[in-house]
Amino acid sequence: MKYSGLTGKVVIPGDPGYEEARQEYNEAINAYPAVIVYCSDPCDVAGAILWSRERDIELRVRSGGHSYEGYSTGTNKLVIDTACMHHVKVDAAGGTVEVQAGGRLLPLYERLYRCGYAFPGGTCPSVAISGLVLGGGIGLSTRYLGLTADSLIEAEMVDARGKLLTANHACNPELFWALRGAGGGNFGVVIGYKFRLTEPVNKITLIRLRWDDNAPARIEFLRVWQEWLPHLDRRMSAFGGIYKLGAWINAFFYGRPKEAGQILDPLLNIPGLTLENINYIPFIDAVKIIGAGYPKREAFQTAGRFVQRPFAQSELAGLIDIMDKAPSDRNSSLRVYSLGGSVRDLEIDATAFFYRQADYIMAIASSWQSEAEAPSHKEWVKAGFNYIYRITRGSYVNFPYSQTPDYERAYYGEHLRRLRRVKQEYDPCDVFSFPQSIKI
Ligand SMILES: Cc1cc2nc3c(=O)[nH]c(=O)nc-3n(C[C@H](O)[C@H](O)[C@H](O)COP(=O)(O)OP(=O)(O)OC[C@H]3O[C@@H](n4cnc5c(N)ncnc54)[C@H](O)[C@@H]3O)c2cc1C
Question: Could you tell me the pTM of the whole model?
Answer without folding.
Answer: 0.98
